[in-house]
Amino acid sequence: MVTRRGSTSTRLGLSVFAALMLSGCGGANDAVSFTARSANQAQRINLATVDAPDRYGLGQPATRAEIEAWDIDVMPDGTGLPPGEGTAETGATVYARQCASCHGPEGEGGSGEALVGLIPGGGAPFGPTYEDWRGDLDDVPFTIGNYWPYATTLFDYINRAMPSAAPGSLNTDQVYGLVAWLLVKNGIIPEDAVMNAETLPQVMMPARNLFVPNNRDGGPEVK
Predict the structure, then answer these.
(1) Distance CA 143, CA 177 (A)
(2) Which of 122, 176, 197, 217 makes an SS bond possible with 81, Cβ 3.0 to 4.6 Å?
(3) Domain-by-domain residue ranges, the chain?
(4) pTM for the complete prediction?
(5) For domain 83-208, is the CATH number 1.10.760.10?
(6) Whose CA is closest to 155, among 211, 73, 70, 93?
(7) Angle of the 88-98 helix axis to the 172-185 helix axis, nearest 10
């Protein structure tokens, strides 16, 4: 029997043959995947031609109070320091409760970094080195007293990052108290000094003059 070109039986036979070929070489899934990929690509192309709206209806404008809650950075000159105050006496209680378990009872270090330590011999500090990490040298660690150039950084860091288990949980007076306690322990301010937005920027750190602007023009000279 001669089948007419394009008849139903011919088309059916070709379809069955194609299906058998695809299933025999594992191509049926490939064919389906290819079809899905083609549809997705066509959808992406269509979406690309659509003008995006100004807003997608997600979220809401941040309020001034929400912005201020995140705007807590403190500059070296004290810009950004909030109202409040603290002394070493008030800070000692906060330190014992929130900090000593990691940094040691007197700031000598523990599982956390050492916080107390003056510049040895009045010179520049020599921080941890590769040899010290190997245990071959008993080197001097970087501390607040021998390395930090600005006292205001203490407030900024403690306020935003400490204690590590609950950062941001301390109030302003507690942070000022901790700053005062740490500065007293490092021999930088008197024990009765009050730290606040006015007095803290005036504290001269021992390492302040060890830092210089990096204004080189490509050569090795450091001014």
Answers:
(1) 18
(2) 197
(3) 83-208
(4) 0.66
(5) yes
(6) 73
(7) 100
